[in-house]
Amino acid sequence: MNVNKRHSTSTVDDAEKKKFKQDFPIAQFEHLANELIYAIFDHLDAQQLHQSFFSLNQRFQYLCLNANLSLRIGMSSASKTIFERSFNDIISHHQHRIRSLYLFNPFIIDYFTISQCSQLQTLTLGNIEWERLENVLITLASAPNLVSLSIYIGGVGKQATVYSLVFQLPALKSCKLNFQTNVPLKLSAISINSVSPIERLIIMDNYSFDEIN
After folding, report:
1. DSSP per position, the chain
2. Which of 44, 47, 89, 96 makes the best surface tag, with the fewest CB within 10 Å?
């Protein structure tokens, strides 16, 4: 009696599983629509995209090269060899469409011509030399879509010059400046005659409370 009951239950379970598979067929990842795959791509940085999908097959290689991506590029964990492969295979094809850049490795910054990133909206810079930072900020003066900028830099440098250049960026709405230095800031060297569109400003620097005005 128990054997027949178990057999009957098993038959019912098998029938339900079969019906479930018919009603809800299990799709393979490679069969997903392009729109869904692009949505997944938007959550990956350039190295992850390259390592996971670029060499999978011709379709995914095409999608990697033709997606309108907001690439996260240049994370600190990327080695030079890995980044070079990603740059040559994917990133160089997207420079004019890049909307987000995260540059934390000094060698990575040399690969980019910021002026070619015409759609750039968000830029985060770290581990960058003061002179190179100054050059980047001068170039950004012609970036019409840059609305968010974050800078992390230490050592002795030209803080006043950086402030002046940042306040001249034409479209900037949000800015975070983290100057990891103990050198007092000479605010008198900063021009206050320009108007900045910045709405949200975070400053981590070395100056007295009385100097804020």
Report:
1. -HHHHHHHHHHHHHHHHHHHHHHSPPPPGGGS-HHHHHHHHTTSBHHHHIIIIITT-HHHHHHHHH-----B---TT--HHHHHHHHHHTGGGTGGG--EEEE-SHHHHTT--GGG-TT--EEEEES--HHHHHHHHHHHTT-TT--EEEEEEESS--HHHHHHHHTT-SS--EEEEEEE--SPP-GGGS---S-----EEEEE----GGG--
2. 96
Quick one: pLDDT at residue 11?
60
Domains of the chain: which residue ranges?
A: 98-183+193-205
pLDDT digits (tens, 9 = 90+) for 112-152: 778 788 888 999 998 888 998 999 999 999 889 999 999 99
Tokens describing residue 12: 């019912």
How far is CA 131 from each of CA 13, 162, 180, rounded to the nearest angstrom?
A: 70, 10, 16
Burial of 111: CB neighbours in 10 Å, binned 0-12, 13-18, 19+: middle
Amino acid occupying residue 136: V
Write down the pLDDT at residue 98: 83
What would the mean pLDDT of 6-11 be, rounded to a whole number? 55
